[in-house]
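Sorry to interrupt, but I need a hand with the structure work. Leave the record below and I will have a look:
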Amino acid sequence: MRNLFPVVFDNIYEAQRHIRQLEQDYIVAQSATRQSPFPGGLPDFFVMEGANCPDSHFIMTRLQFTDEDVRFFKILSKETSYPYLTDFRRFSLKPNLYNKRFLYRGQREDYGSIKPSLFRDENKRYFLDDLIKVQELQALIAQHPLVQLLGVNGFEIGHWDVKLQCNLYGLAQHYYNKSTMVDFSSSLDVASFFAVTKNVNDRYYPADLDSGDVGVIYMLEIDSSLAYNRVHGLDVTSIGKQFGFMRPERQLGFLVEGLTNHDLSKSNRITPVYFRHNRAIAEEIYARWDEGRSIAPEDSLERYWLSYRDNQQPFEISNKAIELNLAFNPKETWDSITRKILDIKTGDGKPMFKLSGKEWPELPQSMLDDYYQDILNGWWQDQFCANIQFPEFYIGRKKREAFLNLPNDERYRKAFKN
């Protein structure tokens, strides 16, 4: 597919029209029957469910889970008022992929490669300093009451034990941490926003570029479901709707794994579409997304984490973050990894980290207060559940009603009430 677009379109709107026409041509040409990712060869009813709702909705989609999932989240289980489930049905609140042929990534210029933020410094070979910060944030987020219920421990509805996909690693990336993942979106409009803006000190502004400068939208050709989280040799996972954290939801987010020195732009399933920048159009798109606030909304997690990350000198590391690191580094021991953490220095030779000695990082009370107030204001029913599509053929009306009624289920009231 990489030779389909040898030209540079006059502006991003022209590029959008061409991409949409390409996708429409595919929809017209494809077979009416989609192949299921599950055994039996049935149509993929989870994807077909998207025909009944807008592109901005999320389909409750059945996923596979592994023993590694069970072991990893057991480390993060903190709430003891309800049990930690080890045998369950796993679902993702996945962005609507009905009639979708591509995922998209927008950049204001072609940098010659597509690599995760963790690997963009070609001189860097050791990544513990970045990864331990991600693991500290994972441990912080995992303590949130809704994360504990829906994603870590799990819950029961209509005699089903259920967990929702909890993409803590992806969340860490969305809150300005380096990772091994590359952002994509199921929305061409979302990708277009990033293609005409720049990020300065964690805030977005229109890119100060003119028609002599060229931007790019990358298209990743996908299968219809992504149930196995793998597309043409690439590991792809949805992040989508992640409990109370709005940013990946607004961006209809997906993540593609990028291994060390692996340039995703070389994949024959990723096609660049180039366009000339236009300042007036950039301002228009920027305004349409409320100067970035609609696509990257500020929330209590962002405010706390940016302050914590930037002002902690040295940066405190909890025992839980170390435990998470060891889960992925079986050759290390507690003593060996803590020595390596304490040996890391800043540019001026000072220790970058210190060990807090606490089991968990401290979840700020302000974040909990905001959440519980949102619950009182009807957030669960009016916002969180409002754009979730429940496939009735699989989940059924009674289970849907049980999910919507979780805040009133005595077993789980602690997750919704202080």
